[in-house]
Amino acid sequence: MKHLFQPLLLLFFLPFTLAACSKSVSNQKDTDNSSGEVDGKVMDENGNPLQGVKTTIEHTVWYDTYLYGVTDNSGKYSIKLPAEPAGTWTAKAQIERSAYGQDYKFDLQADNTDPFDKSKVTTRNFTWKLSGPKPGNGGFYGAHVDLYAFGTDVDVTQIKLILTPLDTKLIDGSAATSIEKTIKDVAGTFMATDIPIGRYSVKAIYAGKKLLLDNRHDNGEPAESKEVIFGKNGTLGETEYNIEFWISE
User: Fold this and answer.
1) pLDDT score at 234
2) What would the CATH number be for the domain defined by 23-128?
3) 0.90 surpassed by pTM
4) Composition bias, kind Polar residues: at what positions (predicted)?
């Protein structure tokens, strides 16, 4: 009897052990009255709705626990929050576009970044911004041009970049305009920051000298004016883009 009792005891406790080690979340509509909902709208900076944008709801405690939604032709989405797991969630949205021979992914700006729970209907709206600071210390929505001195001893922080658009529209369809940027030392890299992604011609201006630009990632010759197509050069974040030039005289 003693040997028979021990296997039976193990079989009794095993289901409880397995249940305590797992957690799953369904994206199906939950009819439980204790569940909640998050909805909202995704727009460009002119207030136009954006269709087919993926929105992600992430649990703040449970690892790898997500819910997803996609905006309709009115730019609206709605995601049902399950009754379990308990706790709070955060919302984010990203948009993907292909242009200039590159694939781009953009973080969208949320109107509210506070966590929320299932106790009520929550609204989180998003805007596609091509420039401006990201919340907190998250850098900028725009791209950057990195400069590296090669054959010149100029003070790089005194250089100005003049970017002239080669197309009438930026990647989001908004009007492209000329941009003048100063160079900053950002953690040891000299760069012009927060440039809306489009296709430009760029020149480096420095008092009393003619500077040449040389794309570090092609076989072209140095020239006063170079085309800028932002991409992934160096170790960059998921939604960060740049172009790198040598500068010389």
Assistant:
1) 87
2) 2.60.40.10
3) no
4) 26-36
